[in-house]
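Can anyone check this?
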Amino acid sequence: MPVANGGRRKLSAKAKRSTTFPLGIVVRRTAGVTRWVKHVWKAIAVLPGAPEASWKILRTEGDAIEYHAATVNLELHRTDTDAYLSGLAAREPSIYVIMRPALDDNPFHIVLATASPYEAQDYADTGEELVEKVPMPDGLIALIRDFIDEHHEEDVFIKRRRDKKRVDLEEDGVGDARIRQLADVYRAPSAKKEAIH
């Protein structure tokens, strides 16, 4: 069967398993409130379609400085549409920014940005990364909603039939004279004495 486009097959939108697009991360630095913490760092916004950047100062306001810390790819996978639906159903749909303390001159390394609250919870459970919840812009909400509409498939519930066999009528090993158990409460006292000797 001949294939158009010079021998290359064009994948339909349904066949694409994932999509990515650049997302700039804005991090705000404010003065710390104790002598042990000099600065407080917090991801406050995302910039859809932002170019590459590395801790570029965007705005200064008193002691506060806002940086375009990095641009990472936001990845959407068709198998995670349930998680994206859960995130969009929240009172305030959000992007979760995962940051890790950097080993170089920068304060943090931006690990990733995700629209999945489940993935963000996995990172929060480790305790090694800082997970920040950032409000999702309207254009990004529309893009994620379009991705869900295109790829989401409801899980079909299949009711299983139960076996009629009763498995709770017999307890394995309880009261069995062949198994030496000194703490067996179901064994007769004479059998316990024989087991000791």
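Reply from J.R.: I decoded it. Confidence is low (pLDDT under 50) at residues 1-15.
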